[in-house]
Amino acid sequence: MTYQNFTIDTDDDGIALITWDMPGRSMNVFTDETMSEIDQIIDQIAADDAVQAAIITSGKRGSFTGGADLKSISGMFDEFQAAMMKNGEAAVANLFERSGRMSRLWRKLETCGKPFIAAINGTCMGGGFELALASHARVAARSAQMGLPEVKVGILPGAGGTQRVSRMMDTQGALQMLMKGTTLSAESALKMGLIDIVVDDDELLEAAKAMLRAGVSPVKPWDEERFKLPSGPVYSPAGAKVWPAVASLYRKETSDNYPAAKAIVKCVYEGLLLPMDTALKVEQRYFTEVLRTTEARMMIRSLFVSAQALAKGARRPKDVPASELKTIGIIGAGFMGAGIAYVAAKGGLNVVLIDQQQAAADKGKAHSEMLAGGLVAKGRISESEAGALLGRITATTDYGRLAEAGLVIEAVFEDRDVKAEVTKTVAAVIAADAIYASNTSTIPITSLAATFPDPERFIGIHFFSPVDKMPLTEVILGDETGDRALAVALDFVRAIQKTPIVVNDSRGFFANRCVLRYMNEAYDMLVEGVPPAMIENAAKFAGMPVGPLALNDETAVDLSYKIMKTTMRDMGEDVVDPRHFKLVETMVNDGRLGRKAGKGFYDYPEKPAKKKLWPGLKTMFEQQDPEAIDFEELKQRFLVTMALEAARTIEEGVVVDPREADIGSIFGFGYAPYTGGTISYIDGMGTAAFVALCNKLEARFGERFSPPPLLKEMAEKGEIFYQRFNPDETSTKVA
Ligand code: NAD
């Protein structure tokens, strides 16, 4: 038989090598067609007397599969919603049936009577790893990475993942891995018992064959009578040690915001009490239940579908040819410039890194030496790869070296005059078609572009710190920025593997505008006398990764002070709440500048002691009785104030595509991922419900919660953002 996506070669020993290699795709994914073909292949292998065993691998270099095609899951949501309107019961039954397809398929493979080995040659995620777990043995290439990341997009491994992992390793470890969606290196998967052997990449197939020759049972341990669970039965002295701790682990990891994580715990708990076939049914039931939650719908849409579309350049002007960037220039080898140099060199670009003094430029390059060294120590790259990466960075004071750069990024002091001077010097030496970008965090791009001879070639590329870790960049269009500058900026962002959002010029652009709201709300709570610990906890329970006071310490309290003063100077005294100003000014005058000073809203004792909220904070304001404070309302205030600001940026045309507000908020400042982002938070509850919530908060806390006219109008018309600002229509819209 021949297949569209697979080839099968059977050798003289009766070992069938099944190679998965989807034509026209860079990665293998599960589509209806691949699933049907796998189904037929299992039948073929089981029936063919000439075949004793099978190896399944991928023909794609460095990758086995990216997993389920989440776009098709996203489409399933839409179909499901439409079907629900007609006949709820039938719709749910249909969803249950469809969502169990892969699970049934892997069980069929597992019980087909002949041994299958998964030869994992590279990235193997989600459904692909579940296929490997269902196989009778697993060999992984040393460079391979694998995992079940479903929980990160709001769902759970629904094709046996929860059941097989928890039967192959200890319960606590299994739950950690499943609830965090951890990506594992081949070595760690081996240590956890999820992989049988790890070999050098080029020995993969030989190793798999050798294993088969040595004998691999076609019956899985859990289908044998005497199978024992790794952590013992649930109701046993061993189980009694494990399970009581699980509730606190779950709370700690999720703050009870993620239905998928809760369902994972239930799947494992209930599944371990049952034989495999029934356990898989239980998993399928929870999978179907989770698929129906708002959280799953919003997370898949934002964190998978939109994130991918934006990373691939949804906003890139289509008619500009691909830029062939080889070398970039960076001016300013300080905190940010050094970080940008590293990610650019890691992305394969040559970097000319310039500062005023050679020592400063060298110090900037030393940052890359430190990070590359760390990767070598962790075994993530080889010594020679690290050497090549560093070899691509030239630290210098010589502006003449910029002649070869197709893009120059300025990251000097946040000072208009210094930037103007640098811009002029660079403009005099770069190629006539080179693009110039500023990494400014506060100065409007249009005004900076005025100091450059050709504002069409001027753009903002705003990075977040630490640059090597943060996945987002904001690309900012000045009034005169041209399409080619945008295309080059987006090509660059893609080369360094970050996700861009494209925004129009505005004070604070997108992310910082929203983050300032977060911190301001915390100032308001402090002034009201909400205990500081309650403020931080409310934010974390709302799903934020870092409390607003801790975040303020990280970004520096004196920076907040500076921003307040600049805003007052530019926009008038009354735009900053005097109580906020006094609070921040007092902190700065006391030297409480944040983590860098060892004291801010928190005190930072010597390690290993942990940071602690500064006790003096409580004495600055009369404290309310915690019992009298509505904790849920504190959580809402944080989420609503940032979502409102995001809605304002759309109303003002700063952000034109709701996907960018969602991705910008999750990737830029960790906005409660289970909501799908600031705009999906509004859409998820419905605009009318959100406006009602704003009205309630406005009545209690003032005008800052007043919904803007756009939201009121949308609420009246029953519109949501993803309809009114349809991403498919806005995707190529630039300004
Ligand atoms: P920094 O003070 O760490 O680095 C600035 C560097 O620029 C210094 O090494 C300095 O020697 C160099 N420099 C100054 N004048 C120069 C000149 N004329 N020619 C060459 N080099 C010169 O500052 P930073 O935190 O890296 O910030 C740089 C820019 O990035 C600022 O515009 C800032 O607003 C922006 N930014 C900062 C952050 C952040 O978190 N720090 C985040 C996003 C954007």
Considering the chains and any ligands shown, give keywords for the structure.
single chain; 735 residues; alpha/beta; 2-enoyl-CoA Hydratase, Chain A, domain 1; Rossmann fold; N-(1-d-carboxylethyl)-l-norvaline Dehydrogenase, domain 2; eight-stranded mixed β-sheet; six-stranded mixed β-sheet; 32 helices; 12% strand; disordered C terminus; binds nicotinamide-adenine-dinucleotide
Summarize the structure.
The chain is 51% helix and 12% strand. By secondary structure, it is of the alpha/beta class. Mean pLDDT is 94; it is low at 731-735.
Characterization of the model:
By secondary structure, the chain is of the alpha/beta class. The chain has 3 domains: about 290 residues, 2-enoyl-CoA Hydratase, Chain A, domain 1 (Alpha-Beta Complex); about 180 residues, 3-Layer(aba) Sandwich (Rossmann fold); about 220 residues, Orthogonal Bundle (N-(1-d-carboxylethyl)-l-norvaline Dehydrogenase, domain 2). The protein is about 50% helix and about 10% strand. The chain is built from 32 helices and 22 strands. The protein has an 8-stranded mixed β-sheet with strand order 15-14-13-16-17-18-19-20, sandwiched between helices. β17, α18 and β18 form a beta-alpha-beta unit. α7 runs parallel beside α10, α14 packs across α15 and α20 packs antiparallel against α26. The protein is globular, with a radius of gyration of 28 Å. It starts with 5 loop residues before the first strand and ends in a 5-residue tail after the last helix. It binds nicotinamide-adenine-dinucleotide. One of its GO terms (molecular function) is enoyl-CoA hydratase activity. Pfam families: 3HCDH, 3HCDH_N, ECH_1.
